[in-house]
Amino acid sequence: MPAPLQKIETKQALPESADAVIIGGGIVGVFTAYYLARRGLKVALVEKGLIGAEQSSRNWGWCRQQNRDARELPIATKSLHLWERFAAETGEDTGFRRCGLLYLSNNETELEGWARWRDFATTAGVTTHMLDSVQAAERGKASGRLWKGGVFSPSDGTADPSRAAPAVARAIMKLGSSVHQNCAARGIETTAGRLSAIVTEKGTIRTRTAIMAGGAWASSFCRQLGVRFPQASIRSSILSVSAGADGLPDALHTAEISITRRGDGGFTLAISGRGRIDPTPQQLRFSKEFLPMFVRRWRSLAPGGTEGWRSGHESLARWRLDAPTPMERMRILDPDPHRNTVALTHRRACALLPSLAATTITAAWAGYIDSTPDGVPAIGEIASVPGFILAAGFSGHGFGIGPGAGHLIADITTGAEPLVDPRAYDPSRFENSAWGKVADF
């Protein structure tokens, strides 16, 4: 697996029962388990592969408010505070720091859009600074270019994707709850119409509450329960380079390239929004729902290959509870990065930031970004399966808002006052069209 990931030791024996079972050990799943365990619940988290091994370790690591859709801004703001508080509460290091995020542009339309967002964000108590050409050139001096303008969001930051989810998993276990790797959830059992147990490959856990935080696997799991959840994945390719480039911003976005400083002094490089659509049975099934998204973003997307079909995460198959499932045949989604995209990304980065020529490529990887038709996550209990809570479809935003999402899910689970208004995330909204509702950013 080329994406860097800190590995941890976890328990093997399953508990006979739990107050809640979390399915999926990505950033949303671990933070959900953490906030439930802090409230005194006995939690069991089951992960088919390794903690944080899929998209939670394959992203840029940005934790931002800047340019968030209005529906996500409140939870993004709360998440920044929770990232900081987590370190103070646990002593665990996720690599989070408020380094500020820098955006530069020579496109007037783009700058006007950022200015409108700034005006909106001010009403929500978020501070972001528009940069004129002189200020942009100063902050972007590593490029040696002139810029028409930009944005700097000083309170935003980054965390380390290679160690964030494992750090939270360790905190869960310190609180007395359990984490189980290489343990796929196969399905559920119900009693009197309500969820009463989770069936895994290693046994059954009795519980009245389960949270599906399985990322790209969520829709196919929901299908086993008769729950229709429109979800499609985009394959995104990025790379990392070694330390050695001096004078670069910690986090920079331009139309050509985006970079993020890593904990080892190197950088992650990516082209924002660039992705491949690997056709799958599930994508074909939900193609009508995703038409508005495609119309909005078709310039950034290109046809992929058959890898997604073979991976099995977007299958329409039904599986049995007493036999291996596609999740056990594909423990970790580790798609091949698109070579031309990796090469283009590196060329663009070195052209924009000449000091990167002193570095070498250390790794290149791809991940499947699970998306919803409107680009906003689905968080909420499924009415047809009482006790089953969906938390998926984070559309490439899950890492940054992971703490807030986990806190909100814990609120929903325990009946506490919600961290933010959950109505914008209600999965029942997918019963209607996404036209006019696709996230702006």
TrEMBL record:
<dbReference type="GO" id="GO:0005737">
    <property type="term" value="C:cytoplasm"/>
</dbReference>
<feature type="domain" description="FAD dependent oxidoreductase">
    <location>
        <begin position="19"/>
        <end position="411"/>
    </location>
</feature>
<dbReference type="GO" id="GO:0055130">
    <property type="term" value="P:D-alanine catabolic process"/>
</dbReference>
<protein>
    <submittedName>
        <fullName>D-amino-acid oxidase</fullName>
    </submittedName>
</protein>
<keyword id="KW-0812">Transmembrane</keyword>
<keyword id="KW-0472">Membrane</keyword>
<comment type="similarity">
    <text>Belongs to the DadA oxidoreductase family.</text>
</comment>
<dbReference type="InterPro" id="IPR036188">
    <property type="entry name" value="FAD/NAD-bd_sf"/>
</dbReference>
<keyword id="KW-0560">Oxidoreductase</keyword>
<dbReference type="InterPro" id="IPR006076">
    <property type="entry name" value="FAD-dep_OxRdtase"/>
</dbReference>
<feature type="transmembrane region" description="Helical">
    <location>
        <begin position="20"/>
        <end position="37"/>
    </location>
</feature>
<dbReference type="Pfam" id="PF01266">
    <property type="entry name" value="DAO"/>
</dbReference>
<dbReference type="GO" id="GO:0008718">
    <property type="term" value="F:D-amino-acid dehydrogenase activity"/>
</dbReference>
<keyword id="KW-1133">Transmembrane helix</keyword>
<dbReference type="GO" id="GO:0005886">
    <property type="term" value="C:plasma membrane"/>
</dbReference>
